[in-house]
Amino acid sequence: MRTSIRSLTASTLMLAAILVLVTTTPASAQNISVFVDGKRLDQKPVSISGSTLVPLRGIFEALGAEVKWDGPTRTVRANRGSTNIELTLDSPLALVNGEIKRLDVPARSIGGLTMVPLRFIGEALGAKVEWQGATRTVLITSPEGAAGQAATAPSITKVVVSPQRPLRAGDTLTVIMTGTPQGQATFDILGVRTGIPMAEESAGRYSGTLTIPTGLQSEAATLLVHLTRAGQETVQEASGTVTIQASSTPAASPTPSPTISAARTTTDFPAPNAVVADRRPIVGVHHTSPLNVGRIQIFVDGRDFTNEARISGARISWQPTYDLSFGQHSVRVSGVDAQGKRLERRWNFTLGEQGQATRYPGINTAVQSSRPTIGMSFPLAVQTESARVWVDGQEFTHQATITPYEISWIPPHELSSGNHNVRVDATTTTGQALNEVWAFSISGTQSTTPPTSLITSVNMSPNPPYSIGQIATVTLYGSPGGTATFDVGGRTGFAMRETSAGVYQGTYTVSNQDTNTRLVSTLRLPDGRVQTLQSTEVVTVNQAAGNPLQLSVTSPSDRQNVDGNFNVIGRSTPNSTVEVTAQVRQALIPGVISIAGRTFSGSAVADANGHFNVAIGATEAAVGSTIEITVRARDAFGNTTAPVQFQVIRQ
């Protein structure tokens, strides 16, 4: 006889919003930290079938539970106070105080650790589970630990921003914050830049700077500082706003109004009609008074993202977990504030095409200083550990200053007069490879041609586009007797062999990370001369080959109650076709025997970001009946995913 399974509690369902944020990234790329009552857990979570799994023993013992392992039955038993938990590896069911509960995915043994769904932690032990997207941190707090949580949160006592005037390209904005020592600090200019690092100069004093690049603009943007310590984050707004004027826009008067102003108005970010480069901008509103948390909503392009939004005091914000498409986007924030006053904000912003990076010294420019600042500002935020800089073939990354938006190096010695080569590589936070190569000269000799004529040309064969796994050949023509290498798609140092005088060849296997990158070739001669050349053509890869389709369903959840008309929502590979079949199961003997009834179906094409929404009309299904859902995705080449299956209840 089938045993009835108690439906998830309302508090458990609220954790689904956290899981959507945590599990949209492959397990290998999540880099998520877990804190239990303020203490970091050494073991890392993993993502399986769209669910985040965390180590049971580490978390349960940190929460004061006693954990025992029964080897012959592969069963874990845990006890904490009056709560008794029992689960078996590879079983989708668990017992909590004798009641059966269904797991999102079965408990598994991974690397010798018993891993259980994150949702189960909150359900089993009544712990509070929070997701902090800014620091990619999961916070698990027991009822006992909640009382001491406020005491461990870092404090911010003062924020100073200078200069207090409208900024232009080349100006440096400095932010100084005092607060709890031994933390990690960053600041954001909403709608402009986020995650700008701040260094702790002395105990509790943090400082960070941003040199304004060409093309950056803002009008009365909100500046926020973040201070994180032991998994707890405190966010505070500076006392005014930041304005960045276009270089071509003259000041309104000889004595411009201060950038940091005391004006207290409702601020939309990104600003209305602003053009932003970040494909995952923070979107929201900072109101003049605290918001009513239960009565405020945020919509972007007509979709409700309230469950993924962060609401704190007078601020509601949402940051996409995927790249927004280029073009115009609409925002609506609707609800009431804590005083019961109506709040209705509607505006648009535009995501512009990725701009050109700012290189310094500029391409083929002549400088007088023999120790110029060398580097570039990035058009999008990068992974700081991926940023590297070379000058004249020698790497100086270890001496460089690196932030998510800039890498720079000042030579500790004087450079010789004449031409110099620069190369910068980095990977954006969204996985896009950036490879830039250019030249400049010292002592007034402007370089209008490549710094040397070592490399005549470079080509690839066969011509792109390529298929994943295909062998491509790179041929370099240049000065004989040298050593040649090439880099592509973030992979470096492919060796080339001189097959005849001045002709160098090398091969590599094409991978999916090569698409939309440029080939960078380097030739070194025995006399020390070096030239690096970046191809003008972009490498394109047919992503269909060897790239498995992705499919995950975010709504509805298993055993959720639904109306006769409901929608199946989730993510798949962009432009794939998602097909949904809903088969009604009619109970002959409730809980014991059921037969297949009528089948309903629907389909939709995933958008450019992979989102799909399939409407199902099952009004003819009897109230209380079980509907079995099967979801598949297929691409234009006939590839099909394994089915995702779950059940819903007609209400």
Keywords:
Immunoglobulin-like; mainly beta; Copper Amine Oxidase, Chain A, domain 1; seven-stranded antiparallel sheet; globular; disordered N terminus; 5 domains
Describe this entry's structure for a reader.
The model is unreliable at 1-30, 248-264 and 445-452 (pLDDT under 50). Helix 1 (10-22) packs antiparallel against helix 3 (118-125). A 7-stranded antiparallel beta sheet has the order 14-15-18-17-16-19-20, with no helix packed on it. A 7-stranded antiparallel beta sheet has the order 39-41-44-43-42-45-46, with no helix packed on it. Strands 5-6-7-8-9 form a 5-stranded antiparallel beta sheet, with helices on one face. It is globular and about 80 Å long. The protein is 6% helix and 52% strand. It has 5 domains: 10-150, Copper amine oxidase-like, N-terminal domain (Copper Amine Oxidase, Chain A, domain 1, 2-Layer Sandwich); 152-351, Sandwich (Immunoglobulin-like); 360-443, Immunoglobulin-like (Sandwich), CATH 2.60.40.1220; 452-546, Sandwich (Immunoglobulin-like), CATH 2.60.40; 551-650, Immunoglobulin-like (Sandwich). The two termini are 24 Å apart.
